[in-house]
Amino acid sequence: xxxxxxxxxxxxxxxxxxxxxxxxxxxxxxxxxxxxxxxxxxxxxxxxxxxxxxxxxxxxxxxxxxxxxxxxxxxxxxxxxxxxxxxxxxxxxxxxxxxxxxxxxxxxxxxxxxxxxxxxxxxxxxxxxxxxxxxxxxxxxxxxxxxxxxxxxxxxxxxxxxxxxxxxxxxxxxxxxxxxxxxxxxxxxxxxxxxxxxxxxxxxxxxxxxxxxxxxxxxxxxxxxxxxxxxxxxxxxxxxxxxxxxxxxxxxxxxxxxxx
Length: 260
Ligand code: ADP
Ligand code: MG
What we know:
The protein is α/β, with parallel strands linked by helices. It contains twelve helices and eight strands. It has a single domain (about 5-260), classed as P-loop containing nucleotide triphosphate hydrolases (Rossmann fold, 3-Layer(aba) Sandwich), CATH 3.40.50.
């Protein structure tokens, strides 16, 4: 069975592409056949996160009917498949995002997971990826503007009768001005699946054009992304993080002070 999951937020810059690329890695680690697709047609950057951007065959050409989906499918060195969008502005002419849903049919039965990295906002591009998916993963940062935009995305997905898996909180710092998981659940009326901490190794991994799980597999953010992958795969998460804060309170305060 092929599951088509859209990673959607409403607000831009909250971590959709980072989550998509790393879910590709984590689900592949779990033995699944995974296909990542950049449905952000106007400002694509999934390929950039993965060091795969000189891609002359891409989703734009598929949507225009010029090539087949399999021709635009590249294999990441770790084994998951990537269908990039074109970074060339000229390729945008004549592309209709509404063709996405029918184009995706060619992947059904070919792969276990199709993860759609969505565009920011709730315009035609991001609506078409919600429409093309069966399941929706909402992602937000723990601040009010992100959560309000996530609510709009959730309402749209609900209106289209999509299965909403839940919300991922990304870039959590535990500072007092943040909304906590309970508050976010109350606003969105969907469960929080995982809380990914603010983690500076994320920036480093993007600069290195590698998924965080490859670049820094034991980082706190990688740990939580892996937890989410287990959940999506329907498996119990067998690890627990050593509670350094409880075991070494002085060290923990020192680290917090250094990160300020
Ligand atoms: P989107 O696809 O929603 O626009 P991105 O995945 O491109 O968002 O992430 C936007 C920025 O946020 C990137 O610069 C990335 O480094 C940063 N970022 C994402 N997740 C984290 C995290 N958990 N910790 C620190 N920085 C993060
Ligand atoms: Mg993005």
